[in-house]
Write a structure and sequence with these properties.
Elements: H1 7-12, H2 21-25, H3 38-48, E1 57-60, E2 63-66, H4 88-94, E3 115-119, H5 126-129, E4 130-131, E5 140-141, H6 143-158, E6 164-168, H7 170-173, H8 177-180, E7 185-190, H9 198-203, E8 206-210, H10 217-228, H11 249-269, E9 280-284, H12 290-293, E10 299-301, H13 303-309, H14 315-330, H15 338-345, H16 349-359, H17 369-377, E11 382-383, H18 384-390, H19 395-408, E12 412-415, E13 418-420
Parallel strand pairs: 3-9, 3-10, 6-7, 6-8, 8-9
Antiparallel strand pairs: 1-2, 4-5, 11-13, 12-13
Helix pairs in contact: 10-11, 13-14, 15-16
Length: 424
């Protein structure tokens, strides 16, 4: 564990020895560079950022703030930069004139029993969780948000002995009074207010992370300008119709890494690698977080899995069952039988035939209702339901064809809803 500390505090706490001149000489030092004055920094800034529009310089509160690409001191032979979320291109953009190498490390193993579940069927940004279209002074929860929080509330109330925590949008917290009154709620906070809550994170046995955090456009703008402000192509900060996607890939890369860092920081606070508590983290957003989503032990679920499981206790088993059927579905081929397709997909005979048609290279030449009916009746009498189940087509159209064939004398109506071929 590394804890940054000022030298004066280290001396006061006797971490650094001030007893002798020799020990003082061993203190860490920062060498002043006579060629790195304010004037040199300004010159480097204007050489690097040639376009005013994307230059990271602001005049705020009588202070000029600007960012300069760092220069390593000549004595530095090797610099190690560690981060839970690191994008290689961003690192190279930070240290422009230096050779960089990305070393991927194995993620810390989670303690047995600790699990992360992530929904895979929705991103759930703020506009989906909250009702942004009302005219009230206070934002309410949308219908989608209500359904999510109802599921969470039911799970919280199912076992009062299990402690829960919820992290979501700050405007949604005020609408969760019914959930907050449960005594087994030990954590209810927003994405931006997790400082000092380490104890609560450790106490919570189930942590619900609902929706996506938001990062202000100005913060994204500043970080993007620092990294890409010297590109020949100007930056564009225009967004797609989705509130979480920028049209410019460079801006989008900064946004994605910023959001990933927030999620990763929250997961780290859960201490899944250290605490043996059978802790579950429920990530209610389908946003791909490489350091979390891509881990093989992270279980991706649908709301249907949650309903089938009836709660968290059986969710892992429900996911495994669904994944098994998905693998069997993916292994279907043109040689698969209709019965096999029906069993795996749980579909009707007509739907199974359509699937087999696609697998066999497109639409099979259509056989007329007449030919299908006559072929089916060669084995004896058939009822209308038996015929409509075996023939691809609308039941009303099949009934019309049956009436036509009876009138033409090609088939015989034995009684109501029962047909056969005529006697020879």
């Amino acid at each position: 564990m590394k804890i940054p500390i000022p030298i004066l505090d280290a001396v006061r706490l006797e971490i650094l020895d001030t007893g002798t001149i020799e020990s003082i000489r061993e203190f860490p030092t920062v060498c002043p560079n006579p060629y790195w004055t304010f004037w040199h920094q300004l010159k480097r800034f204007f050489v690097h950022y040639t376009r005013d529009a994307d230059a990271p310089m602001r005049w705020e509160n009588e202070v000029l703030r600007f960012r300069v690409p760092p220069i390593l001191h000549p004595s530095v032979r090797l610099l190690l930069v560690t981060s839970p979320v690191l994008y290689g291109e961003h690192l190279r953009r930070t240290f422009l004139d230096e050779e960089t190498e990305i070393l991927s490390t194995e993620p810390r193993a989670r303690m047995p029993g600790n699990r992360v579940f992530q929904i895979r069927t929705g991103i759930y940004p703020r506009k989906t969780i909250l009702d942004l279209n009302n005219t009230w002074d206070i934002l309410g929860v949308s219908e989608t948000g209500q359904h999510i929080f109802w599921k969470i509330q039911a799970e919280i109330e199912r076992d009062p002995d299990i402690k829960h925590g919820i992290i979501t949008h700050v405007h949604a917290i005020g609408q969760l009074k019914n959930i907050a009154k449960n005594e087994n709620i030990c954590l209810l906070t927003s994405f931006r207010n997790i400082e000092g809550l380490e104890t609560a994170f450790q106490e919570a046995e189930v942590i619900w992370i609902v929706g996506m955090p938001e990062e202000g456009a100005r913060s994204i703008l500043n970080r993007t300008q620092i990294l890409f402000g010297n590109d020949e192509e100007p930056l564009s900060y225009e967004m797609e119709s989705e509130a979480y996607r920028y049209k410019d890939d460079r801006v989008q890369s900064v946004y994605e890494k910023t959001i990933a860092h927030i999620f990763t920081q929250i997961i780290e606070l859960a201490q899944l690698h250290r605490l043996e508590t059978n802790k579950k983290v429920m990530l209610i957003t389908g946003w791909r977080i490489p350091e979390i989503t891509d881990r093989p032990e992270t279980l991706l679920f649908n709301w249907e899995d949650f309903e089938v499981a009836g709660g968290l206790d059986k969710l892992a088993e429900a996911i495994q069952t669904r994944q098994r059927f998905e693998r069997e579905r993916d292994n279907l081929t043109a040689e698969s039988s209709r019965k096999e397709v029906e069993a795996i997909l749980g579909c009707s005979t007509r739907q199974a035939n359509r699937v087999l048609q696609r697998l066999r290279g497109g639409k099979i030449v259509r056989v007329s209702f007449r030919e299908q009916i006559l072929a089916l009746l060669t084995n004896g009498e058939k009822t209308t339901p038996e015929l409509t189940a075996a023939i691809q087509g609308h039941p009303k159209a099949i009934n019309t064809e049956l009436t036509r064939l009876v009138n033409a004398g090609e088939i015989v109506k034995v009684r109501r809803g029962v047909y056969r071929l005529p006697e020879l």
